[in-house]
Design a protein that fits this description.
The complex is a heterodimer of chains A (118) and B (606). Chain A is mainly alpha-helical. Chain A has one domain. Chain A has helices spanning 2-22, 25-39, 44-56, 70-75, 83-93, 98-101. Chain A is elongated, with a radius of gyration of 19 Å. Chain B contains 36 helices and no strands. Chain B has helices at 26-37, 41-50, 56-68, 72-80, 87-95, 97-110, 123-132, 145-161, 167-176, 179-202, 208-226, 228-231, 234-243, 249-256, 263-272, 276-285, 293-301, 305-315, 324-327, 341-345, 348-360, 365-378, 381-390, 397-406, 412-422, 430-435, 443-452, 458-464, 470-483, 487-495, 500-513, 516-523, 532-541, 548-557, 563-590, 594-605. Chain B is elongated and about 125 Å long. The chains are: A mainly alpha (118), B mainly alpha (606). The interface between A and B is medium-sized, with 34 and 28 residues.
């Protein structure tokens, strides 16, 4: 009996904790990343690549890679990123190669999209 | 270069997206479509961060997505960053004025005193507070700095994006906000109404949307005009006048009731404003015979060139029939004076229009006559022409004398108008005065003479030709030739007619009119006419001929079967010979050497 009660209480705490987590900014941004991956029908390896990219570039939002083509351009310099797959993802998200997609004159750091917001 | 793809965001599930001006890759489209419709609050954060992306198309897509989200807080934040956006982004804002309208409306509402505070207050309490001065805007606590800045920016946004829908809250703010802000609000109302009026007047055909908007704006400004006593803002009155129609009930009430607090400032505004909308309203009053007298007095008092010029241009000469009744109610025009400085500033067509207005209004006739006399001396060409035409409405010796004087005017159009009037006026010696003018080369004068002297038409001359004494035929014929432009054509038709009587008469008339030279080629074949009387007339008339083929034809006529024709041909040839000999002598006398003579002969033959 005690065991059942304990299990129910643990389940309740877990649900409550989950609902709290769901309201965190961190969770919402990750959620948005996965939702966008689903929208673009990216396979598991592409998702992993983008996540890795967002970590390595230390982007404030993981979904930023979907918005700013400079992120994929920057990924070309990274030895850990397989170029063929990068090209595939880039073509799916932005349509062209990362060099072409990246703004030619832009020298801004894609790691900090808020930098120019001041 | 940014990746260019196909299609736009037309398939947005919210239906809020419009295709951007550039084409975008499908992948990016999918991203922003999703960011627009997702409930995930992180999307807003991402989109707001994308507004700072150095890449224009991304910024624009992000802004479009943010504006598509029905969230006031987002719009308020976007409004806060309005100054940072470039023209492309501002164009996106301009496509969604409703978003900004809500935000600026909130700001305008914030600067107003809280109406809830007054709930439940009795009239007595209200009066008591008013007496203490607590209700007056000046006694309100000052607006805090941030709100004041927001207010200024909101007014700028209203002007920049023409947020007409924000007008109700802006007008409310102009009436009730803190005195430090009312001037700006009222000025913005006026400016936006000027922009609206420009839009209205630029539209070739007023669309239903514009009409509805005008009605709504007018209603808002009506209430502001009614509350003039409370706010005292003249800008609101002027803005009201710019969109009001002459049938507007509030406008009419204010104009009719001289005790109304808004009456005097409104009349002053109507008198002084040179805004197109106000001038339009004043002119529209003229179409209504029931127009308030105050409006007509304003029209009569205005002496500014812009107003009078527009009025005169609309009127033309004569003024439109629809104005007739209302113009008849105007008894005073400030510029209706000979020598008024306004006349010098008006161009010719405006002077003409003003004359039409003077004739339409109920102004002393002697005064109008003086103006016409003045304009005939000092006016511009169109004004002078209208002035002499207007003399038609002025009988009497003075006007007669003026018309006779104008017969010798330097402007042929003025002269022509005087010619048309002079016989109708029964001026002594009118006919001889007109006959003196027949030598003119001016087409308008000749046309006028043709109208004024109908008895000197070619047709009439031909009809009466047989009954005219010989000595009078030449004189009358000469006058007909000078006055009737169609004479050669009529004579030609007669010469070619089937009736020998008409052919002969036409030849004789041409001879009397001195028109043989012009019709020589048509008359010469008549030397072979079957009717001998026609041949006689032709042989006689061709004495004035100048070409060698005609002389040869005359020479052939010396062998005509009719003795009379032969005699007339001989006489004509003798006449021609004598004339040529005379010319030869004159030419010889004029040239000093034979070589010069031959040169002059060459010139003549050329």
């Amino acid at each position: 009996m005690m065991g059942i009660l304990f299990a129910v209480a643990a389940l309740g705490v877990l649900t409550f904790a989950l609902s709290l987590v769901r309201h965190t900014r961190w969770y919402q941004h990750r959620q948005l990343f996965w939702q966008l991956c689903r929208q673009h029908q990216l396979d598991r390896s592409s998702r992993r690549l983008l996540l890795q990219l967002s970590r390595q570039l230390r982007l404030p939002f993981p979904a930023w890679v979907f918005v700013d083509p400079r992120c994929l351009a920057a990924a070309q310099q990274m030895p850990t990123i397989p170029p063929a797959q990068l090209l595939q993802v880039q073509a799916k998200l932005f349509g062209e190669t990362p060099e072409q997609a990246a703004p030619p004159a832009s020298q801004e750091n894609p790691q900090n999209p808020n930098a120019s917001a001041g | 270069m940014w990746p260019l793809g196909q299609g736009g965001w037309l398939n947005s599930p919210y239906g809020l997206f419009e295709a951007p001006s550039f084409t975008m890759h499908k992948g990016l489209e999918t991203t922003f479509q999703y960011l627009t419709r997702t409930d995930n609050p992180a999307a807003v954060e991402l989109l707001e961060a994308a507004l700072d992306c150095p890449y224009g198309p991304v910024r624009e897509l992000a802004l479009t997505a943010l504006l598509a989200r029905p969230n006031r807080a987002i719009h308020r934040r976007l409004f806060g960053r309005l100054a940072e956006f470039d023209s492309a982004c501002k164009a996106i804002f301009a496509k969604r004025p409703d978003r900004l309208t809500t935000v600026v409306g909130e700001i305008f509402a914030q600067v107003r005193p809280k109406s809830t505070k007054h709930h439940g207050r009795t009239t007595g309490q209200k009066k008591q507070r008013e007496a203490c001065g607590e209700e007056s805007p000046a006694n309100r606590p000052p607006v805090d700095g941030k709100l004041q800045k927001d207010f200024v920016r909101a007014c700028e946004a209203v002007r920049e994006f023409r947020l007409y829908d924000a007008l109700p809250s802006l007008v409310e703010a102009a009436q009730n906000a803190h005195p430090s802000l009312t001037a700006l609000a009222a000025g913005t109302v006026l400016e936006i109404m000027k922009a609206f009026y420009a839009e209205l007047s630029a539209a070739k055909k007023c669309s239903k949307d514009l009409k509805t908007l005008r009605t709504r704006l007018t209603e808002v400004l009506q209430s502001a005009a009614c509350a003039y006593k409370r706010h005292g803002r003249k800008e609101l009155l002027e803005a009201f006048l710019m969109v009001a129609k002459p049938q507007d009930v509030v406008l009419r009430r204010i104009l009719h009731d001289r005790k109304e607090s808004a009456h005097e400032p409104l009349v002053r505004m109507l008198t002084e404003s040179d805004e197109g909308g106000v001038i339009r309203l004043l002119l529209a009053f003229l179409e209504d015979p029931q127009t308030p007298q105050a409006a007509l007095e304003v029209i009569g008092r205005r002496t500014d060139v812009r107003f009078v010029q527009i009025w005169a241009e609309h009127a033309g000469y004569p003024p439109p029939e629809v104005w007739k009744e209302t113009l008849g109610r105007i008894r005073y025009l400030a510029w209706a004076e000979a020598g008024h400085p306004l006349w010098a500033q008006l161009d010719g067509p405006s002077q003409a229009g003003c004359i039409g207005l003077l004739l339409g209004c109920k102004i002393e006739r002697s005064r109008v006559f003086q103006i016409l006399e003045f304009l005939l001396q000092e006016g511009k060409p169109e004004g002078r022409r209208a002035a002499v035409a207007a003399l038609e409405h002025f009988p009497g010796a003075k006007a007669d004398a003026l018309v006779v004087r104008t017969l010798d005017d330097r402007d042929p159009y003025v002269q022509a108008e005087a010619i048309r009037q002079v016989r109708r006026r029964n001026v002594p010696d009118a006919l001889s005065r007109l006959i003196r003018l027949v030598e003119t080369d001016q087409a308008p004068v000749r046309e006028a003479l043709q109208e004024a002297l109908p008895e000197f038409s070619c047709k009439k001359f031909l009809r009466t030709f047989e009954h005219l004494p010989d000595e009078f035929r030449q004189t009358a014929g000469y006058l007909v030739r000078k006055i009737d432009f169609d004479a050669p054509a009529i004579l030609l038709a007669e010469i070619q007619s089937l009736s020998p009587v008409r052919r002969r008469r036409a030849v004789e008339a041409a001879s009397a009119m001195g028109a043989v030279g012009e019709l020589e080629t048509a008359i010469t074949p008549l030397l072979q006419d079957e009717d001998h009387r026609v041949r006689i007339a032709a042989a006689k008339a061709l004495a004035d001929s100048r070409s060698q083929p005609t002389w040869e034809a005359l020479r052939d006529a010396l062998f005509d079967r009719s003795l009379v024709v032969r005699e007339e041909a001989e006489k004509s040839l003798q006449k021609i010979t004598a004339s040529l000999a005379g010319q030869l002598e004159m030419a010889l006398a004029a040239s000093e050497t034979p070589s010069q003579f031959s040169e002059s002969l060459c010139d003549e033959s050329c």
